[in-house]
């Protein structure tokens, strides 16, 4: 039984973690394109009471991600109301949950100070800052860490304990949830586990990994949403694998740092700045076991602890894949900060011989809070082009009345307007030459097929204004300019009505 004093200390630590995570999360508006898109899809689910079909607009399904993150955002809004803070709650929850699982891993990897890896992870610059952004990655990091916590307890947990007996089943279940969050990205760490099984087979003697039932459980959880839609869209799963995995990995279609040096440019700054203020301990904790493993290959003797080998594989295999594929974004490597925190903890033990050791984690907390505060203050006092809140304020001044729809023409829609203006957001092509996956209809198609019965604003890049007016005129309508606004580009704002002679 846990001593009362220890229980109070853990409760206090949890409260501090929660307060730290929640601070300054509502200062900033929704930034395009990711935050606006995730929120828009969640709002569409609530608007049409359809939680199975992710949509950016009622005419445009959106199949780029499985739905669990959308569900989490929509559930937050439905339960607590609309605010930037509420919409960021799933990311905050993911960060808190990941930190708690790191603490559980600390009981296996650093039993003398099991809280140390969690303290390091929580005060890393990158993971705590990432919780301020609405993406899939904080929830994915929680799912991956939960999965590996289960597998680690199955391998190294006390013989006969609940974790040793059933930890692997929990690991498989969490991996399935990870697939519902971000698809096959969850498989990369699992391949690292498979490599560890190959390199360190003796560590698995007597371990219950439940390979067959575990894979079945994971597959059922991962495929649950796809199975519900199989009747109406039989190819969804395979289309998803092709478009969102193979195409992203092998082409620069999405223009996400696909250059040969893109991995270094994207990930090196994240690793250097994101591990502050612990980066010295991270480097030492990573370098020592890596060199020991290298020497073991040359000398034949295994001089590296099996747990450290596991942590190295957990980091190195996914990191290598991320460096090689042609779609690279900083948040992709967020789950890899967990093994870095566990590796750093072995070197950070020496920190406690110093009188003011607590200044290091306090510096990390200060970095994160200042970062959030600076983003929020800058957002209020400086026009940030990717902030949809700024554009919404301009549009409300131009047209204060309630709208049904905001239409962007031949330019990526700022989907955060769905939240700020309580209106659907649609993206249309100027003409047939501009039609693509994001804008599958033209302005002429929209007006000729549906007319302009809805109360909506049309947002056109300033340089395309004359072409838009000409297209609208050809369809028997008239585009009336209401003024200009500044978002991601300089825009001209229009209303479209039936031309006088065509009434």
Name a few traits of the molecule.
five-stranded mixed beta sheet; two-stranded antiparallel sheet; 59% helix; 7 strands; alpha/beta
General description of the model:
The chain has 21 helices and seven strands. With 503 residues, it is an alpha/beta fold. A five-stranded mixed β-sheet has the order 4-3-5-7-6, with helices on both faces. A two-stranded antiparallel ribbon has the order 1-2.
Estimated structural class = alpha/beta
Number of strands: 7
Strand proportion:
5-15%
Q: Give the topology string: H per helix, E per strand.
A: HHEEHHHHHHHHHHHHHHHHEHEHEHEE
Uncertain runs are none
Strand order of the largest sheet: 4-3-5-7-6
**Gap between N and C termini, in Å?**
81 Å
Shape field: elongated
Give the number of helices. 21
**Percentage of residues assigned to helices:** 55-70%
> What average pLDDT do the residues reach?
91
Rg over alpha carbons? 25 Å
């Amino acid at each position: 039984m846990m001593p009362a004093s220890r229980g109070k200390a853990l409760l206090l630590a949890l409260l501090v973690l929660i307060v730290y995570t929640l601070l300054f999360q509502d200062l900033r508006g929704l930034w395009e394109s990711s935050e606006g898109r995730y929120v828009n899809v969640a709002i569409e689910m609530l608007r049409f009471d359809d939680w199975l079909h992710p949509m950016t607009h009622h005419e445009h399904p959106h199949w780029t991600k499985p739905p669990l993150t959308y569900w989490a955002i929509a559930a937050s809004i439905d339960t607590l109301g609309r605010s930037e803070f509420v919409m960021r709650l799933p990311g905050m929850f993911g960060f808190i949950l990941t930190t708690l699982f790191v603490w559980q891993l600390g009981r296996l990897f650093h039993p003398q100070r099991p809280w140390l890896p969690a303290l390091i992870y929580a005060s890393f610059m990158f993971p705590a800052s990432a919780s301020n952004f609405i993406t899939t990655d904080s929830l994915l990091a929680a799912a991956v860490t939960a999965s590996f916590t289960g597998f680690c307890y199955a391998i190294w947990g006390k013989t006969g304990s609940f974790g040793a007996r059933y930890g692997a089943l929990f690991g498989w279940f969490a991996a399935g949830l990870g697939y519902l969050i971000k698809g096959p990205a969850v498989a990369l760490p699992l391949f690292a586990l498979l490599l560890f099984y190959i390199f360190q087979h003796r560590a698995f003697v007597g371990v219950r990994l439940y390979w067959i039932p575990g894979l079945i459980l994971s597959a059922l959880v991962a495929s649950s949403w796809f199975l519900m839609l199989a009747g109406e869209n039989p190819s969804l799963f395979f289309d998803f694998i092709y478009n969102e995995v193979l195409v992203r990995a092998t082409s620069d279609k999405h223009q996400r740092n696909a250059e040969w040096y893109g991995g270094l440019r994207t990930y090196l700054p994240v690793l250097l700045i994101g591990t502050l203020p612990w980066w010295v301990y991270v480097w030492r904790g990573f370098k020592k076991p890596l060199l020991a493993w290298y020497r073991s290959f040359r000398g034949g003797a295994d001089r590296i602890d099996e747990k450290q080998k596991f942590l190295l594989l957990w980091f190195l295999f996914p990191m290598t894949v991320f460096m090689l594929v042609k779609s690279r974004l900083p948040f992709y490597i967020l789950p890899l900060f967990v093994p870095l925190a566990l590796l750093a903890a072995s070197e950070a033990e020496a920190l406690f011989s110093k009188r003011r050791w607590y200044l290091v984690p306090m510096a990390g907390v200060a970095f994160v809070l200042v970062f959030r505060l600076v983003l929020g203050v800058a957002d209020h006092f400086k026009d940030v082009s990717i902030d949809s809140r700024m554009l919404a304020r301009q549009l409300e001044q131009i047209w204060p009345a309630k709208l049904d729809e905001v239409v962007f023409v031949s330019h990526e829609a700022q989907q955060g307007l769905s939240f700020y203006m309580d209106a659907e957001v649609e993206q249309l092509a100027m003409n047939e030459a501009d039609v693509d996956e994001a804008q599958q209809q033209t302005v002429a198609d929209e007006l000729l097929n549906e007319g302009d019965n809805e109360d909506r604003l049309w947002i056109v890049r300033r340089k395309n204004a004359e072409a838009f007016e000409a297209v609208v005129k050809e369809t028997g309508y008239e585009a009336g300019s209401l003024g200009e606004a500044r978002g991601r580009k300089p825009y001209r704002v229009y209303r479209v009505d039936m031309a006088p002679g065509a009434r």
